[in-house]
Amino acid sequence: MSEITLFYLKFLLLAGVYTLLGLLIRALVRDLPMPGKPASEPIPQAQDAPGWWLAVLQGQERLEGRSLRLQEELLLGRAPECQVQVNDPFASARHARLVPRGEGVWLEDLGSTNGTYLGAEVVKGGVMLPEGGRFSIGDVTFELVKRA
Amino acid sequence: MRARELGLLAAVLAVVAMALALATRSPEFRGPPPWIWLVVQASAWLIASLVLRWKKAAGDPLLLPLACLLSGLGWVMVWRLDPTLGQRQSLWILVGLLAFILTALAVRDYRRLEDYKYLCLVCGVVLQLAVMLLGTEINGARLWFRVGGMQFQPVEVVKILMILFLAAFLRRYGRWMRLGLLSREGRLPRRALLLLGLGWLAAEGVLILQKDLGMALLFMGIFLTMFYMATGRTDLVLVAGFLFVLGAVAGLLAFSHVRVRVYAWLDPFADAQNTGYQMSQALFSLGWGGLFGTGLGMGEPNRVPEAATDFVFVALAEELGFVGAVAILIAFMLLVTRSFRVAMRAPDEFGTLLAGGLSVLIAWQSLILIAGTVKLIPMTGITLPFVSYGGSSMLASFVILALLTRISARREEPC
Amino acid sequence: MLIKRRVRRLAILLISLYLLPVGQLWYYQVLIAPRLNERPENSRSHENLELRGRLLDRQGKVLARTDKGRRVYPLGAAAAPLLGYVTERLGSGGLEGELARSLAGRPRPRTLEQVRRLEREKSRRGDDLVLTLKADLQLQAFELLGQDRGAILVLDLPTGDILAAASSPGFDPATLEKSWQRLSQDKSAPLIDRATQGLYPPGSCFKILTMAAALESSQADGPFFCAGSLPVTGFELSCDGARAHGALTLESALAVSCNVTFASLGRMLGQKGLEDWIKSFGLLEAPTRVPLAAAGHAPRGRPGAEEVAAAQAAIGQADMLVSPLGMARVAAVIGRGGTDLPPRLLKAVSRDGRTVDTYPVGPPRQVVSAATAATVLQAMRAAVDRGTGGAAGAGVAGKTGTAENPHGPPHAWFVGVAPADAPRVAVAVILENKGYGGQHAAPVAGAIARAALR
């Protein structure tokens, strides 16, 4: 190959490499919006109804900041029959249940693998939670709110 | 998805072919261009893609083309530096692709790997101890086993075993490490401290016994980032990182071999004919390349000792210039971005931790090596994944690629 | 999940870390690349010796070429101080260093302009340089010097070409890298070419110039009388052994090398007058076509001592310093009938066997009249036929010199032309600290002059 051809080919190669990177970046950008699983339908509730409410403080993007009304027993876990779907890898299928009982809410761990926590304490069996009580399953932290 | 992977692979191979033509047609290169090897390699890549598709094991369609680009450019450079090494590198790439296919097919369900975590730990520790105590010392660092004419670098296996163990272990126990000391509950996280302590000890052990800063950095980097991923304990990670730096500095002061490397790093020209020779030659190589490079096959990267292994990035930077070197950095960024994406889309925590750990491995290893060769940190003895010459490294890189592909392939299936 | 958020954070952190090497690459590959390329330790900027051009003698014999990455000098030590050296480790010196611009192969082209130039020239080889030397004469001259420290310079009168420029001690260019330490510290300076760069007091040889100057200034009306010594402002100059020569003509004063006569001529010419003549013989400037040649030096004398300076300079003593090339040039002016030609060492440039450039001869310049030159030449013949220079042998006209110097015994000089009746070559010989010029330098000069005429 003549020197002048080599000289131009040097730039052509660099252009080729960058075109390739461009193709790869385009493929990458196209994939960017992460197709998550369809969000489970939120239970339609009047947001200001009096009584016990379960608020998701943090840990689950879809539910964060949301509240659920606690009228009867609620099941928490990954199983489809649970009213509160906890999509955390540390959650068991049927992880825990909540029962409103007048002055407090009964939290019962249903023999989960990774436990239900009150702060750093593992819930053994069940415990009565007062207003403002917090507990967590995996990375998800819940709070009990009582609205007048 | 598959069609896209094949199309991208074809485009990458076309660029590699052009690079090969340029490198071997330059007036300075003597010897025939290895077209046969290129054709064999190209078919192997396409076959790998097709086999995975056929076995329904196909995963992320960008991983394979990116690996192909990096290993292709590395191979052309290694061939241009030394055709004998180039020929062997072709074989290593083929063996690597075979390992890629076999791993991808063998690991039908990566979650099963979680059960072997202690086996991984024991194998890793035994291998590591063996090479520390029995390995052959090359350039003052004990990183090799030599059997006959072949050299084997066990660390390439050890790092994968370590990531498998850490992913499984942290998946199981990570939650208990999230709380305690320095966080709001004020209880001592004994498990976390124990694990961090052992990790720290291992990294310092590597530094002291193997006398290689890069390897120690790599271990500590992977360990701490995975610990962070699983626990989010930034405080503990920072403390452990700080302690590691302390230990490393003490190590530097204590060991003349490492100290020499540090001096050679701080001012390579002070002893340019001796201890600073490699680093100053590397800098001359970079400077010679300039903005657009000398053109493939037209520079003098052979003047840098270990140009095909430790300094392959510098060799590429000389002949492709700043512009080409940045292209390689971008390719690595894309590969790492993509493998982190696999981690983020993994269906379970073990998958996330494993893919995350492997991504961190690719990122740290390439960053440490590149930083070492461009005089950001003292020079180290590790290889550039996919690019450097070397069988163990190539094999390990392809196994990592196979695991990532497998984890990304699981996304579609119910869990 | 929190863990995925952390993974994302980590990914962003690690990916942004790749910007650090980008900055570092920019610094080394673009910002300080030119400075890196120029560092002396950077062997990339060293030239590729395979591409370096050859040095050839006037008949096309090879004086220096490259073989398997090493520079080869067929004349060995005989031409080493003049030609110099070039090695990967030591760089270059002598002509090899001075002529590097033409000799050195060109680096691989980087810019479009350089590529186009390479397309035109077809080759990156450096140019071959043709010197005016005659290889076999150079070899003989070096052999004649033997174990002595000294130099021989032979000029071709019609062209001003340097036919031989030998300097002793020489060095073996093949083993230079090994012996570098010793050679570079050797007090006898084997790396310096004495023939063109050595500056010495010319001693009595300088009387040729003084005589021509005096004749031109019409201040040489004899006869002269030598009483053996001459007082000059509180200083006394004497002839060898303070022996009185008695009454002398100018011709016989040169033949017997009478200090008293020439010192008094110098005093008459005056310091300024003598310096003008030294300048017009071309001794005070470095000849442009002889790379590295040294310019001579004329004594000024402190204020009030100009007379002593002039008297001493006239007999080539004190601070009067000339190279062997300079003295041969003076003899050549006399031999050419008063005409000076600038000395020439570079003859032509050739590329791929074709001559692409030549260095012209001349221009000639009349320094003294033909009559003056003829008179001086006659006196130089007398010096050989019946004076101090008898050992030079028949057919040579010249002047001996025995130059006092602070480094030990006097330097032995002989400067002359041959054949005596119609000169074609001029020679200058110096043997350092050897003693009488008539005894030691004259036979060597005779031998090399006869060899040059063959």
SSE inventory with pairings:
The complex is a heterotrimer of chains A (148), B (415) and C (454).
Chain A: H1 3-30, E1 51-58, E2 67-70, E3 74-77, E4 84-85, E5 96-101, E6 104-109, E7 116-118, E8 121-122, E9 126-129, E10 134-137, E11 140-147
Parallel strand pairs in A: 3-4
Antiparallel strand pairs in A: 1-2, 1-11, 3-5, 5-6, 6-9, 7-8, 7-10, 10-11
Chain B: H1 2-25, H2 35-54, H3 63-81, H4 83-106, H5 117-134, E1 136-138, E2 141-147, E3 150-152, H6 155-173, H7 190-209, H8 213-231, H9 234-254, H10 256-266, H11 277-289, H12 312-345, H13 349-373, H14 391-409
Antiparallel strand pairs in B: 1-2, 2-3
Chain C: H1 2-17, H2 19-31, H3 33-38, E1 55-56, E2 62-67, E3 70-72, H4 80-83, E4 85-87, E5 91-93, H5 94-98, H6 100-103, H7 112-121, E6 128-131, H8 135-145, E7 150-156, E8 162-168, H9 176-185, H10 194-197, H11 207-216, E9 224-226, E10 229-232, E11 235-238, E12 246-248, H12 250-255, H13 259-280, H14 306-314, H15 324-335, E13 339-340, E14 346-351, E15 354-358, E16 365-366, H16 370-386, E17 397-405, E18 408-418, E19 425-431, H17 437-453
Parallel strand pairs in C: 1-6
Antiparallel strand pairs in C: 1-2, 2-3, 4-5, 6-14, 7-8, 7-19, 9-12, 10-11, 13-16, 14-15, 17-18, 18-19
